[in-house]
Amino acid sequence: MNKNPYIILISTIALTILLFTCLAPCGYAEDKLEPSQIPSLISSIRINTPLDFCGEPVPIENQAILERLEKEMLISLGDRVQVILWLKRSNRYMPIIEESLKQNNMPLDLKYIAIIESALRPHAGSSKGAVGFWQFIKPTAQAYGLSVNSYLDERRNIFKSTKASIKYFKALYAEFNSWTLAAAAYNMGEEGLKSEIVLQKTLDYYHLYIPLETQRYIFRAISAKLIMSTPEKYGFYLSETDLYPPLKFDRIKFECTQKIPVYLVAHASGTFFKTIKDLNPDIRGRHFARGYHSILVPEGSGLNFHSRYKSAFKNWTGTGNRQIYVVRAGDNLTIIAERFNVPLNTLLIWNNLNPNHHIHPGDRLIVFKK
Q1: What is the domain extent for residue 300?
Q2: I need a surface site. Which of 78, 159, 241, 249 has the fewest CB within 10 A?
């Protein structure tokens, strides 16, 4: 049967209006997206005021130097996702860094070194073996008092690594009498920088021909400073609730009379294995080594920790919780794991073994009850 096309059109319009009215979400006016307020890149890189890094002037009146800064500004602003993460993480970590710098009478601009080094990620790593918030390589970390071993990597500890970086910057400033050169040395190494200064006969960072990464280094820090000091100017509008919350924790100290699993401390803290690892990214692996430890636990869980830990440790070491399996002829790790109905990797972790470890009849393995 043919229908009048006008009736069909009117019916369609009426149905559309009805559906829009019924399906429109509550509070629609509040959920409307605001028009874009991102300024143009050209206007963002226009700099009309004097600049400094750690109180030392940046000679942007020199066109070549201004060009280097503009390049880093454009690169930073081109990765808006990264900048948002800078701003969100800063609320968590920057108060700790700023307080340490103030206590040591250090320029606050040094905090931007942590931004360009790691984007404030504790587990950041480089192809050269640098790790943590301040990207220390192992020898430098150990030279400035950080522990780096199979159980602990304090380069990932925001408190201890910041303290070590401040000691290092102090030594570099004493060497070069310039925070700009100290930062350059932090990136490329003091011996390499001293050599270039002697060969090129200048103490001016901005006119030194040094590795390209180091030539960019100060400009990257200045870009981070400009953007993070006035994020709204560059189109980043974050409210207080958008930021990651500051670290809240209790600090507890305890002694391990033997190697113990991290989950045991998590249990005594009334939290999860992951929470302990997240609060203490410097803990490597799944165990605490024998000795004294100072770690962070969720705020409020430090109360009565030691009594709970003592009880958990007693239960864990009790004979009813684990057994010793003596390896028989024909056994291998896979067979033993299947016999006790546990994942092979779990058996390896319990006994601090690697998958290629060869066992022999008479060897003794620890197996925990489920």
Answers
A1: 249-317
A2: 241
